[in-house]
């Protein structure tokens, strides 16, 4: 039952570092996601684990076995491709049985396994169809069944839901996690969709430009992002630039336009330029202008009804842009043009150093 | 009658064997070119095209020199290693169909999505098993196409086969040509000639069409079994050592059996350059060289006219086929009909054309030549153009129409720019095919000499098969072939450079 360990792995293409000295341990039976924007290296990392490409340096272990020089067919993995890669010249049944056949299972055993996995993905009726006759959702499930039928204990998924429409995506992602847990597999799931990663993973590694930025459970990443990038990439954040005026216990901040704010900070000195990050749903918004400490004043510019939430875009008096989400059915609605005062609980605010390259560049995907 | 049937069955058996051998030797080389990582492979890729571009008459003579005469490889073996006859014919056909197979298979493998093979590897298959169970079944249509085309070329080729067949061996086209010669020399009567020619041609055409239909149908049904237990065996053959030996053998076969013999004829050309005088003679057009340049002019002029006509007539047909204007079934029938001139041996085609137009007295030979070459090259252009058109989504044309464009404007502003490289490469295939065409030319006209026909005659003169032509010796033949190869190679180079910009 394997852990998967990646130690100091680097992969370059020309002068570009696809992976820059990455170290990571994925625990046995964990459902682990690699999350990040395009080009961050998550797919490269997955393919390195699979053996489809070789690292320039570093070591890869599956279980206790060092595998970086071992070809994919000997690594005992199952791989679900983004494009499914179902063999077009074989039926769904033929595809599913390919793994067992290649590993020399006898006919009876192979059939039993085939039916088992198809039962798991709930597709026992379309066995004799060719991939071209199946819908996207069905192809996806056959692809998963095929990877599982080969019997591997490590399941690698490369953006498995990318080709599916939204409703189907939301349903299937829970099924995949359920299967992995039922079969006690170690699963590594690559995605750029943060809500997908958050809803099914035990832990997530957020990646950017070949490096891992933060690893943690979905709750940790959401509640305690360690950087502007994570605060922006996971969920949504409002960013307000300013600097620290004093930092004794509860730090005092001065934001653009002279707004005063407070936050809990450790480790950043007075005078430092910072960025205050606030999630849209933690803030309180009241009608009217009430200049207080720790309050931001502004006017509602745009109201969008998004079903569960109403999204308010507020133009603050200091020129900053601010977003607040409020549940649509349990709170009083406000209108464009209303003056509002925004406040927030101090313990829900995050403060980060203002990066050298500037805020926009730092959070850019 | 018996001779006819014997010759025809020779044609078919050689065709099938050669096509199979071409696949066997060509696929590993195509694999190396498509999958390999070295920069030298582009050079290899271009070299693999050479035998296709050398006019078959020159190719035939080249092989004759290499394998049979004292100047070639035979010198190591004391005299003639492979004398003219069926083995030499097989080598010849193997050689000129080899590039066709390599070209088709390289294209197929480059288009092939590697993801399938990778999927199969992650499921536990070693590389050889992955290729056998996944890759080859998926590219099977291209294997069938390559086989068919190699077979078709073998059936059809006349000029070079005539050179290497020797006095005794005959295949279909050689038989027809021999008949024609016998008529000229008065050995047989016109009635016998006509009867025998018609008979042989009809059989050739009928059997060709049936075999092609068979190849298509059977080819699709062929399914190799999975082979329980094979994967563990294939594992041993999959990795570095096996790949290295496979590549070395493929390269060896290519260089020693295909490439060097094809270019061997140019050797005298280098000798000529070295000594200077024959070269000057050649380029000044003195003596026998006058007819050489004339024939070259005729060949290129004819090819030019045929190309322009081919484009003008081919584009409408390609549009009809690609857009299935007449409906699904009529278009499929039309599609198969278009294939006929490729399948049918060109000499048989030439014979039928001659008979067809015979009624019209005063039909100049030149016009007949144009019709014959047009008929033979037209399918290549239509094929190339219609597959390019099929790749253009109908959506684009519809978008243009909703914006107000009339049909001709749609064609000029959308279809033409997007298919211009296919038109270009189709045009160049037509051009080179026309320059190379021997069989139909011989059937259709007895006065006009295109370049390949001239070369065939010169070779026959040197070999004493016909009355000697003054001024023609092996040096002149070699030089003529060398010049022809050089020109053809330059055209190929231009084609490569022009179409490379179109690679998306």
Verbal overview:
- The complex is a heterodimer of chains A (365) and B (504).
- Chain A is of the alpha+beta class and 365 residues long.
- Chain A has helices at residues 42-50, 92-102, 107-120, 136-149, 166-182, 194-200, 218-223, 228-233, 359-363, and strands spanning 4-13, 16-26, 31-35, 57-62, 65-66, 77-80, 154-158, 186-191, 203-208, 211-216, 238-248, 250-255, 260-264, 273-278, 284-287, 295-305, 309-316, 321-327, 339-343, 350-353.
- Chain A has two domains: 4-230, P-loop containing nucleotide triphosphate hydrolases (Rossmann fold, 3-Layer(aba) Sandwich), CATH 3.40.50.300; 237-355, Nucleic acid-binding proteins (OB fold (Dihydrolipoamide Acetyltransferase, E2P)), CATH 2.40.50.140.
- A six-stranded mixed β-sheet of chain A has the order 6-7-8-3-9-10, with helices on both faces. In chain A, strands 13-12-11-14-20 form a five-stranded antiparallel β-sheet. Chain A has a five-stranded antiparallel β-sheet with strand order 15-19-16-17-18, with no helix packed on it.
- By secondary structure, chain B is mainly alpha-helical.
- Chain B folds into two domains: 1-265, MetI-like fold, CATH 1.10.3720; 276-504, MetI-like (MetI-like fold, Orthogonal Bundle), CATH 1.10.3720.10.
- Helices cover 80% and strands 0% of the residues of chain B.
- The longest helix of chain B has 34 residues, at 2-35.
- Chain B is globular, with a radius of gyration of 24 Å.
- Chain B starts with a helix and ends with a helix.
- The mean pLDDT of chain B is 79.
């Amino acid at each position: 039952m394997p852990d998967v360990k990646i130690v100091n792995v680097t992969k370059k293409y020309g002068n570009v570092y696809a992976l820059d000295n990455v170290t990571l341990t994925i625990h046995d039976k964990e459902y682990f996601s690699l999350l990040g924007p395009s080009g961050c290296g998550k797919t490269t990392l997955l393919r390195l684990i699979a053996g489809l490409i070789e690292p320039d340096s570093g070591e890869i272990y599956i279980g206790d076995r060092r595998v970086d020089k071992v070809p994919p067919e000997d690594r005992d993995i199952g791989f679900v491709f983004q494009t499914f890669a179902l063999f077009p010249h074989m039926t769904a049944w033929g595809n599913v049985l390919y793994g067992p056949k290649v590993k020399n299972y006898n006919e009876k055993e192979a059939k039993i396994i085939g039916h088992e996995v198809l039962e798991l993905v709930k597709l026992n009726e379309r066995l004799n169809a060719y991939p071209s006759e199946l819908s996207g959702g069905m192809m996806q499930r056959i692809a998963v069944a095929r990877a599982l039928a080969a019997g591997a204990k490590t399941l690698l998924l490369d953006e498995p839901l990318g080709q599916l429409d939204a409703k189907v995506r939301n349903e299937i992602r829970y099924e995949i996690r359920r299967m992995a847990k039922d079969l006690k597999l170690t699963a590594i799931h690559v995605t750029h969709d943060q809500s997908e990663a958050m809803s099914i993973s035990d832990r997530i590694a957020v990646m950017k430009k070949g490096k891992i930025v933060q690893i943690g459970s979905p709750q940790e990443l959401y509640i305690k992002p360690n950087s502007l990038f994570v605060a922006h990439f996971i969920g949504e954040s409002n960013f307000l630039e300013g600097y620290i005026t004093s930092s004794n216990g509860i730090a005092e901040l001065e934001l653009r336009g002279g707004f005063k704010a407070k936050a809990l900070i450790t480790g950043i000195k007075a005078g430092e330029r910072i960025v205050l990050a606030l999630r849209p749903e933690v803030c309180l918004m009241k009608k009217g202008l009430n200049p207080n400490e720790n309050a931001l004043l502004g006017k509602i510019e745009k109201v969008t009804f998004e079903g569960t939430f109403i999204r308010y875009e507020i133009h603050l008096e200091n020129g900053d842009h601010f977003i607040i989400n409020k549940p649509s059915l349990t709170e009083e609605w406000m209108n464009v043009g209303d003056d509002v005062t925004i406040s927030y609980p101090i313990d829900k605010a995050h403060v980060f150093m203002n990066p050298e390259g500037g805020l926009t560049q730092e959070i850019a995907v | 009658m018996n001779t006819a049937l014997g010759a025809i069955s020779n044609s078919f058996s050689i065709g099938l064997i050669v096509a199979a051998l071409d696949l066997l030797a060509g696929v590993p080389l195509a694999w190396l070119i498509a999958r390999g990582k070295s920069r030298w492979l582009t050079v290899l890729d271009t070299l693999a095209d050479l035998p296709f571009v050398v006019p078959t008459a020159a190719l035939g003579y080249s092989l004759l020199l290499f394998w049979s005469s004292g100047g070639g490889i035979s010198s190591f073996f004391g005299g003639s290693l492979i004398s003219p006859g069926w083995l030499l014919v097989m080598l010849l056909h193997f050689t000129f169909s080899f590039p066709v197979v390599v070209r088709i298979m390289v294209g197929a493998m480059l288009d092939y999505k590697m993801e399938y093979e990778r999927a199969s590897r992650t499921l536990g298959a070693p590389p050889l098993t992955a290729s056998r169970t996944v890759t080859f079944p998926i590219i099977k249509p291209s294997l069938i196409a390559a086989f068919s085309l190699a077979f078709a070329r073998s059936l059809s080729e006349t000029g070079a086969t005539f050179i290497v067949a020797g006095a005794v061996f005959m295949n279909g086209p050689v038989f027809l040509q021999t008949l024609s010669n016998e008529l000229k020399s008065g050995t047989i009567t016109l009635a016998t000639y006509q009867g025998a020619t018609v008979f042989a041609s009809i059989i050739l055409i009928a059997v060709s069409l049936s075999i092609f239909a068979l190849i298509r149908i059977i080819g699709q049904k062929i399914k190799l079994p999975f082979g329980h237990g094979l994967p563990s065996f294939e594992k041993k053959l999959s990795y570095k050592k096996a790949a290295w030996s496979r590549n070395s053998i493929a390269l060896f076969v290519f260089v020693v059996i295909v490439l060097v013999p094809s270019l061997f004829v140019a050797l005298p050309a280098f000798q000529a350059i070295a000594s200077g005088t024959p070269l000057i003679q050649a380029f000044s057009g003195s003596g026998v060289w006058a007819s050489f340049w004339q024939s070259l002019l005729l060949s290129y002029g004819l090819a030019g006219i045929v190309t322009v006509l081919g484009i003008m007539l081919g584009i409408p047909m390609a549009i009809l086929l690609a857009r299935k204007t007449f409906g699904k079934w009529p278009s499929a029938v039309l599609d198969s009909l278009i294939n006929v001139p490729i399948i049918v041996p060109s000499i048989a085609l030439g014979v039928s054309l001659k008979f067809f137009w015979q009624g019209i007295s005063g039909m100049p030979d030149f016009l007949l030549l144009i019709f014959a070459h047009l008929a033979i090259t037209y399918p290549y252009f239509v094929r190339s153009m219609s597959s390019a058109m099929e790749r253009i989504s109908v959506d684009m044309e519809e978008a243009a129409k909703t914006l107000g464009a009339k049909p001709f404007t749609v064609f000029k502003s959308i279809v033409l720019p997007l298919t211009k490289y296919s038109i270009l490469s189709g045009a160049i295939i037509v051009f080179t095919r026309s320059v190379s065409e021997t069989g139909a030319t011989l059937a259709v006209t007895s006065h006009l000499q295109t370049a390949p026909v001239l070369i065939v005659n010169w070779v026959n003169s040197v070999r004493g098969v016909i009355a000697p032509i003054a001024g023609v010796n092996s040096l002149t033949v070699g030089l003529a072939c060398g010049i022809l190869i050089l020109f053809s190679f330059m055209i190929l180079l231009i084609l490569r450079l022009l179409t490379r910009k179109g690679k998306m």
